[in-house]
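User: Okay, second chain of the day. Same drill as before: sequence in, structure tokens out.
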Amino acid sequence: MIRSSALRTLSSTAIRACRAPALTQLGRGMRFFTSEADDSLEYDLVVVGGGPAGLSAAIRAKQLDSNLSVCVLEKGSEIGAHILSGNVFQPTALDELMPDWRQENPAWAQTPVTHDDFVYFPTAKYAIKSPFLPSAMSNHGNFIISLGDMCRWLSEKAEDTGVEIYPGFAVSEDPVIDDKGRMVAVKIRDQGVAKDGHHKSNYEPGVKIYGRQIILAEGARGSLSLEVANRYNLSAGRCPPKFSLGVKEVWKVDPEVSRPGHVTHTVGFPMDYMTYGGGFIYHMKDNLVHLGFVTGLGYTNTNRSPYMELQKYKTHEMLRGLLDGGKCVGYGARVINCGGYQALPSVAFPGGMLVGDAAGFLNVLKIKGTHTAMKTGMLAAEAAVADINDGAQPGHVSSKYEHAVKDSWVHKELYGVRNIHPAFKTGLFSGLGYGAFWLMSKGREPWTFKWSKEDAARTRKQAKCKEVAYPKPDGKLTFDLTDQLPLTGVDHEADQPSHLKIKPGMEKVPKEVSFGQYGGPEQRFCPAKVYEYDDKGNLTINAQNCIHCKTCSIKTPGHFIQWTVPEGGGGPQYGSM
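Assistant: Same drill. Structure tokens below.
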């Protein structure tokens, strides 16, 4: 019998070595197909993405029916390798998924929140602490965590239930569609293709993984999720999505300034009053501080650099005092899907479901999305199991999931804070003022703010933008990007086609439009120095530097970059980020 664990080394060579018999039964609903034309596997439930949403979905499915075959496909080299988050974890969904989890006292949950501050930085020298914190923003009962560490723990729990987890398997952005237009499978990206397109000696064509239901849990701006949303027009009638880029560092600080359990969120410096963004400072045990700066990608000044905003943020007197004598030990970046209620797409489509940040279930007011990601993953699993046990065929649209989301506390949370983010459109103070009004309305106001522009369309041409002053890196507090990049552990197979592609028909856009009119904003917004222009406007794409933040697929003028998956296992190798 061919055991499903063989997928860890799955290749067409391995499959062809197993050609007799042509079809082997591996367990209920899990079958192994092979033919000269097509190598494939079949599961009851296929989950794409090994983050909190995907792992929660897999665990919940096996809790409901241990006989179902469930697999999780993760493009990172291991679970957690591509997970980055400034995370104060609200355990609501985990309490539902595993009510006894606290009894284990897991290593990732050793820093409960003990103190909460919301601070306004008017300048680089001054800080004004809010005298009170709205209950909706309180972190009482929450934990400061490394989300990557929590996901590794969740993956162990998933495997204990019988879930099969396969890191290092990058799912292609091209779904497998049947003759009725339904998504019935995903395809693993081909391995062993050289940069010039020829097949190397280790070439292996990607295997198709069929599922009676497929859950997409790729996180923000997932390439397959984006393709599916476009194919099935899932965002029809919704506002376009909004994104922010979170740039994060981890510091080892002097024990005298370490305050485990302290949480601080800031607004103001270094951001101008018209640009959405803010900072966070989270004290963990072992004298570690997780800090970062989040820049809304709807910013208008093409000269802005989210990476340099973080460097400038650290020059504030409060952070200087905290970081003096410390050492930066971690760096990374990732986009956040923060459009909220108005931008939520239809979450069920023919053959699958969108969960977590792939759909955009972030609560902007709480600055949290892990609890909602986990809950939507659980709801998707419950709907999938019910559909499968009801005899639903592959390609089925799960109305059960759509209805479950609308009836859940996730929907209630997002609807209640729907106007918070768009209220900042006219500036920081109007946003804070609306926040004060929200304390009275609690989201019950009879109106809903909307918008029509995507983030890329808000960028102004360089001739209309002022220069943005940033500090010269000193190598102690502030750093050149090239010095920080090694902290991501980024690694890709060098001899492979670039996964960052200029879209067909847009070959002239980088030089004539992006560089010629906007000054090449991708060389400033990319937090990994992937994009570089020479003085004549010729673009070089250093794809090997890519840390999979996805900003380029959102903010390039005209969306001229198509982000596709590289070979599985490539990308950042984050530890406890």
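The CA atoms of residues 92 and 371 lie 6 Å apart.

User: Thanks, on to the next one.
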